[in-house]
Amino acid sequence: MENKPTQSNYIKNIIVEDLKTGKHREIVTRFPPEPNGYLHIGHAKSIVLNFDLADEFNGRTNLRFDDTNPLKEETEYVESIKEDVKWLGYEWDSLFFGSDFFEEMYNKAVLLIKKGKAYVCDLSAEEIRTTRGTLKEPGKESPYRNRPVEENLDLFERMRRGEFKDGEKVLRAKIDMASPNLNMRDPVIYRIAHAAHHNTGDKWCIYPMYDYAHPLEDAFEGVTHSICTLEFEDHRPLYDWVIEECETECEPHQYEFARLDMTNTVMSKRKLKLLVDEKIVDGWDDPRLPTISGLRRRGYTPEAIRNFVREIGVAKSNSIVDARMLDHFVREDLKMKAPRTMAVLRPLKVVITNYPEGQAEWLDAENNPENPEMGLRKIPFSREIYVEQDDFMEDPPKKYFRLFPGNEVRLKHAYFIKCNEVIKDRDGNITELHCTYDPETKSGTDFTGRKVKGTIHWVDAGNAVPAEFRLYEPLILDGEKEESAGFLDNINPNSLEILQGFVEPAMREAKPQDKFQFFRHGYFSVDPQKTTGEKPVFNRIVSLKSSFKI
RNA sequence: UGGGGCGUAGCCAAGUUGGUAAGGCAACGGACUUUGACUCCGUCAUGCGUUGGUUCGAGUCCAGCCGCCCCAGCCA
Fold this sequence. Notes:
Number of helices: 12
Shape: elongated
Mean pLDDT: 96
Distance between the termini: 43 Å
Number of strands: 25
CATH topology of the largest domain: Rossmann fold
């Protein structure tokens, strides 16, 4: 993996300090997704952060599924998450499930009870809520708060044995009902759920809550720096309380950073799901979605995603990153890697009237002028070709140096052609152009007789391979970031445009996920779902930048 | 005065102990060009939410204001 130095951030500074003072000898991080959905680029930020941080200081990173809620989690998600992490280019040191530690967690809970730091509470969920108090008023202590240790031990064991129904009892940490931090008002740390767990099956009917489980999982794994998002800042005192009171061998610490948000897209699991459920997009891997599977299908590369995430930095202020920054990093990555080839997305037939009928020649074309090692290929040329509709204007404005009546342009890799005649149908639509070519201007002959301002791409009509092109625009229009379902009003109705055109014959060999730069258009990737043996389908990953404006 | 955070350019973001505002994206000029691309060169914060204070010196320290985000799941 490439080792670009990543910019400084506050967590890295802490690590440097911890290493210097000897607080830690080895850095251990973890990426702890809950297997209840698909990963998106926001997760990629967390993945890159955790893995890179450990990498940089020769530490290690675990992948840990935080599976403490059997009602929401499924094995299907475990597999897709593993696939996505690997695809992003990372190898975890160890693979854990939070559920691997259920027994130890249970034992720690018994310890808490023995220390008088936890109690079984019979209050209903509703009662717990009402007695929790409000943001400005303290809560009330539960009548069960001072149950004797022996009774708590007995009840907790019976909870585990399944003697009670869901919601009948919970185990609560005994902390402080008057704390200004709601999380410290005797939080529930175990609840009863008679539900099969994707990993432990029916072994358990009590499950630990996040605030209790997460710090213990970190401690059991030997995690030193437990990195999470900003909304958990308020939970840190509880995290520390659990570590302290459970007397774990390792003492991990939690650090928070701002989750990634980007312009012109949606990032929350809820909104993503809505788009999928409402069929506004075509599944979780729709190329317009910021899911890892969507980005992959669209053609974004792991390298580009990593570099993007490294460049946006890690901080604690809520921010919205310009989506165009991601585009920049794919272009940068694909510049050297993607072969250049010509594709006509909106075909306009051109007949080269002075080129002999029945004649054809095969021209040399370099695959990537930025990267000569990629070699040459042969492309056919003959009397009839297709050019881009946009590359002809009957009545052009100033500074238009493509094709127009009387003007001469260069055909990339081929000859100069001059437009002599515009053929139209009965309705006045342009159907064909008649041009003449100059044999002396053949590419590669160092012809210097005259210059043209424009070079356009084309495809030989006789050998053209029909292809479909899918052009994507941002899913969400510019404007206020709408909350709740209101964001549906900002959906871009033109986020997908499907075009039928032609590519060079060599493109018959293109395989799913192969990436190309279509000359003067942008970077495209072969769609793995829509492509058939008959017709390749190309997703536009990103267009080329352009300073051209009419 | 519930508690916890954050505020540096259009967008991200660096800025260890106060010493005179990195970098990237975007944008805009120009050079080059068989991609209106790439590349290269140049421009882009007398300014760090704001008002005061301390200091020879403040983005960094202090005080007060203002604005934004998060928290009352037996979700994570």
